[in-house]
């Protein structure tokens, strides 16, 4: 079992989906709670393929790379964390299928945090600020995602709220 600080033990071979709006603290949480080398970040992959983590036009290429690496890690039974919003059914479904095909459990770590927190954390970012209207849209999508998660086939669903997440 892999120890994830704050969550306890998760299967060593799990594919963990971080799910939450931009500004929820997913990347900071992953950096402080997960072992180096286990996190696949959509922002980092946009930086890799386009030279700019904020370049949304690079998302399709970044997610192709993310899926290739996640698939290889799942085949090898390696604990992997996908750091992306994962707010849409299609984004989650493709990762759930990837885990299932490799015979690995999928775990959802949900960032059910307040809109105010997301907006405030986004405003503190030195770079890569997301427009407020996008964060508001993500927050609405989060509510819809929460209603569906229990029926999507996760081995476990962990929900983190404002009080569960450290602040700077």
Order of helices and strands: EEEHEHHEHEHHE
- Biggest sheet statistics: 5 strands, parallel
List how many beta strands DSSP finds: 7
Strand content: 15-25%
Span of the ends, CA to CA: 29 Å
Lateral arrangement of strands in the main beta sheet: 4-5-3-6-7
- Please count the helical segments: 6
Structural class computed from helices and strand pairing: alpha/beta
The parts where pLDDT drops under 50 for at least 5 residues are none
Q: What form results from the Cα inertia axes?
A: globular
Please give the radius of gyration in angstroms: 15 Å
Q: What do the pLDDT scores average to?
A: 90
Instruction: Give helix % range.
Output: 40-55%
List the helices and strands and how they pair.
Blueprint: E1 2-4, E2 8-10, E3 15-19, H1 26-33, E4 39-41, H2 42-50, H3 59-75, E5 80-83, H4 89-101, E6 106-111, H5 115-124, H6 132-148, E7 156-160
Parallel strand pairs: 3-5, 3-6, 4-5, 6-7
Antiparallel strand pairs: 1-2
Describe this structure in words.
By secondary structure, this protein is α/β, with parallel strands linked by helices. It starts with a strand and ends in an 8-residue tail after the last strand. It is globular. 44% of the residues lie in helices and 17% in strands. It has helices spanning 26-33, 42-50, 59-75, 89-101, 115-124, 132-148; strands spanning 2-4, 8-10, 15-19, 39-41, 80-83, 106-111, 156-160. The strands form two sheets. A five-stranded parallel sheet has the order 4-5-3-6-7, sandwiched between helices. Strands 1-2 form a two-stranded antiparallel ribbon. The model has no long low-confidence stretch (mean pLDDT 90).
């Amino acid at each position: 079992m892999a120890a994830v600080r704050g969550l306890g033990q998760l299967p060593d071979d799990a594919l963990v989906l971080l799910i939450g709006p931009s500004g929820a603290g997913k990347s900071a949480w992953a950096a402080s709670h997960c072992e180096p080398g286990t996190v696949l970040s959509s922002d980092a992959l946009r930086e890799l393929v386009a030279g700019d983590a904020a370049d949304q036009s690079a998302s399709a290429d970044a997610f192709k790379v993310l899926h290739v690496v996640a698939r290889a890690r799942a085949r090898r039974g390696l604990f992997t964390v996908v750091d992306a919003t994962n707010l849409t059914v299609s984004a989650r479904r493709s990762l759930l299928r990837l885990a299932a095909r490799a015979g690995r459990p999928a775990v959802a770590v949900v960032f059910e945090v307040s809109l105010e927190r997301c907006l405030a954390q986004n405003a503190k970012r030195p770079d890569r600020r997301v427009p407020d209207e996008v964060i508001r849209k993500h927050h609405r999508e989060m509510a819809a995602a929460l209603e569906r998660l229990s029926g999507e086939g996760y081995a476990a669903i962990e929900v983190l709220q404002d009080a569960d997440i450290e602040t700077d």
